[in-house]
User: Fold this.
Amino acid sequence: MPTIDRRRLLAGAAATGAFAATVTAAQPAQPRSLTGKSFFITGASSGFGRAGAEHFARLGAKVFATMRNLPRPEADELRKLATDEKLDITVLEVDVLDEGMVNRAVAEAERLSGGGIDVLMNNAGIGITGPVEVQDMEATRLAFDTNVFGYHRLTRAVLPGMRAKKSGLIVPISSQLGRVIAPFAGHYSATKFAVEAMFEQLAYEVAPHGIEVTIIEPGGYPTKVWVNRNRYSAELKARADAKHTDGYPGVVARMGSEDGSGRTADVMDIPRAIAEVAAMPAGTRPLRRPVSGGGIPQTGINEASKAAQLAMLGGSQMGQWVRGVLD
Assistant:
């Protein structure tokens, strides 16, 4: 069955103002080699970021693995692994809260790779649990600054280089909780809902430049994010005013002592999914990719959202971009 070449379709639409589908013959499945592609990863000290750095490099990619607070043992371990296995991994220091540091690291990665980054994996994130009422402004700012503004800083830094080469893939790590909501998860869902909205909008806007966005929506995985979550949540509980905590005694008592280590899903699910998407022909990558070791409750929401977007904007002046990304 023929497939729509989204990249050519949207580039043509941007140039002519007309929406005319370019149809090409279906292409055979591509091998998952990532040779020749450069990956820039945030939060590469552990979890999805660390697993991704290793996986993409073993598939032939040139990887820029970033983490904050260098020097640190995790950076040394990753450099040693790269040396031992002859992998193309460069460790760079990035705190996603620091725009200057972000811009310098991206510029260095572009210099070393000889041009714009091919794939940005926006991954660094935090969680702070507890009732919304208990979340003070310090916790709220930190959650949004890391999970939303951090993604935005990195995206702005890589886009000029991607536009110059007329290609690129941006992969924000969202969550099932970016589409469904669990009580007492602090502002985590709020930040991930923001990620979902921001990067769907971005997908429409950058498609004419040959740049694609695939939002990864993981379920629960046994990463170390819960270790930092407990620290942040315990600090919040310690400074919280009783007038806010008294309404939720059981929940507040557990803040900072939750054990997220019992999950058994394979963390490698996420790097494998990203590698598969990155290896797909340009113009065929999905806007969203749910990945879970269990259920995928957001599927119905994703489909309903797609239908609503197409109904609202599909026939408008912006319809060319919306249809090109969603269809």
Notes: Residues 1-31 have pLDDT under 50 and may be disordered.
